[in-house]
Amino acid sequence: MRYVLPVSATENPPPPHPGADPRPVPGQDPRVQWGLSLAVVAVGAVTIRPMGLGGQGLAVAVLFVVNSAALLARGVPESRVPPRLALAWLSSGIVAAAALLGVGDSGTTYLFAYFVAGHVGYRLGTGRALALAGACSLLCAGVLYFHLGPGNPELPWVLGLTTGAPVVVGILNRTQRQAVRSALSAAESAERAARAEARTAVLTERGRIARDVHDVLAHSLAGINMQLELADALLETGDLEKVREANVKAHGLVKESLKQAQWTVHALREDALPLLESLTAMVESAGHHDAVTVTGTVREVPVQVTQNLLRIAQEALTNAARHAPGGVVGVDLTFTASSITLRIRNRPATRAVTPGVGSGMGLIGMRERVALLGGSVGAGPVTEGQDQGGWQVEAVIPG
User: Fold this and answer.
1) Are 393 and 365 in contact (CB under 8 A)?
2) Rounded to whole angstroms, how far apart are CA atoms 287 and 289?
3) Beta carbons of 128 and 147 less than 8 angstroms apart
């Protein structure tokens, strides 16, 4: 069986480039910021006077250009502006806005101070933003109160004190932006974790199927191959009786392999296997009738538990048939509140044991299966009781 992993479960999006712009935040469209900035610049260009090529007009024009540049620079992504440069740029913007208040005779000179202060709260940390906004209020109020320059005398100095107020709006926008980005980052982390979990589940299922297929085919095909090679070698000696014996063993291994393959396919395709019924049918198909004993209250168990217990039982029964032919086999299934125990015992062989290949699973494979379920498994000789001299496999699964 071949699995193809979907792209969403196997591939993670590449990490952003260190110099890449941060992702846009829902509810904060950069185009709105650009539109507001351009609107302030346009209104200032129409209303602020005087503007010219000499004297006060030249000073107003230069300060207007500086203010416009400081305001439009807010559209530059944060990733492209180092923190120190941002602090210097915004500080110079506030000084230029206060100077424009003192030089311009009329118009909307005060708008630049308001908008720069708002962006201070959005771009800088809370402490620096409040300090810089306070400096903006004091500087603008001082320019108006002391009439520093030939500015508009009708503007009250209290207006200068309010120029730092928009910093609160900027801080709130920055807080919202950080919260939204944190939520987006957490969602992406959860998605990556879900993808990794899905990939792990697929790989675990691949491993389980690989073990099932290996257990069924590896030792059976090896045994068949050995018997066929033996028969081929015996043909040269002319001992037809031994050739027939090797042929019969090969046929027996083929039947055993088919039986195991049927159980494996059944376990892989069933959505919900009844543990007790499937275990009883398996034991009876191996030639052991009335061999299953149940202790406790039978309950439904997860499919993965059922599949692994059946594969362990199948391996134990196969080993009993190979290494203790004719020996009585007993299977005990015990249900408790906290665990399920499967115990398979076989008495010593009553017929001659013929050499053959070992199991493709063995105790290591059993431990791998049980470890996936958080349980334990043990195997060893029986040293007491009516089964003394035989062999026992015991698997304990929690839950």
Assistant:
1) no
2) 6
3) no
Residue bearing the bigger pLDDT, 278 or 341: 341
Neighbouring C-alpha atoms within 13 Å toward the C-beta of 54: 0
* Distance set, CA 155 to CA 71, 75, 204 (Å): 22, 30, 75
* Cis amide leading into 16 (omega within 30): no
Residues whose CB falls within 8 Å of the CB of residue 256, separated by 6 or more in sequence, listed in order: 220, 318, 321
Sheet hosting strand 376-381, strand order edge to edge: 292-295, 329-335, 339-346, 391-398, 376-381
pLDDT interval class at 126 (50, 70, 90): very high
Q: What distance in Å separates the CA atoms of residue 290 and residue 83, rounded to the nearest whole number?
A: 81
Strands (DSSP E) contained in 224-311 are: 292-295
At 271, the pLDDT band (50, 70, 90 cuts) reads low
- Residue 13 is predicted with a pLDDT of 46
What pLDDT, on the 0 to 100 scale, is given for residue 10?
A: 39
Q: Residue 331 pLDDT more than 60?
A: yes
Q: What single string gives the DSSP state of each residue in 134-171?
A: HHHHHHHHHHHHTT-SS--TTS-HHHHHGGGTTHHHHH
Q: Which two tokens stand for residue 112?
A: 């630049």
- Banded model confidence at residue 224, pLDDT cuts 50, 70, 90: confident
- The two beta strands, 329-335 and 292-295, are parallel
CA torsion through residues 213, 214, 215, 219, sign: positive
Q: CA-to-CA distance for 312 and 315, rounded, in angstroms?
A: 5
Report helix, strand or coil for 178. Answer: helix
Query: What contacts 207, CB < 8 A, 6 or more positions away?
Result: none
Nearest of 337, 276, 283 to residue 306 by alpha carbon: 276
Burial of 274 (0-12, 13-18, 19+ CB in 10 A): middle
308-to-96, 102, 211, 262 alpha-carbon distances in Å: 77, 85, 11, 15
Q: What letter represents residue 157's amino acid?
A: W
CB 341 within 8 A of CB 395: yes
> Is the CB of residue 294 less than 8 Å from the CB of residue 331?
no
Residue 294: how many CA atoms within 13 Å on its side-chain side?
11
The pLDDT tens digits for 52-81 are 998 899 999 999 999 999 999 988 888 899
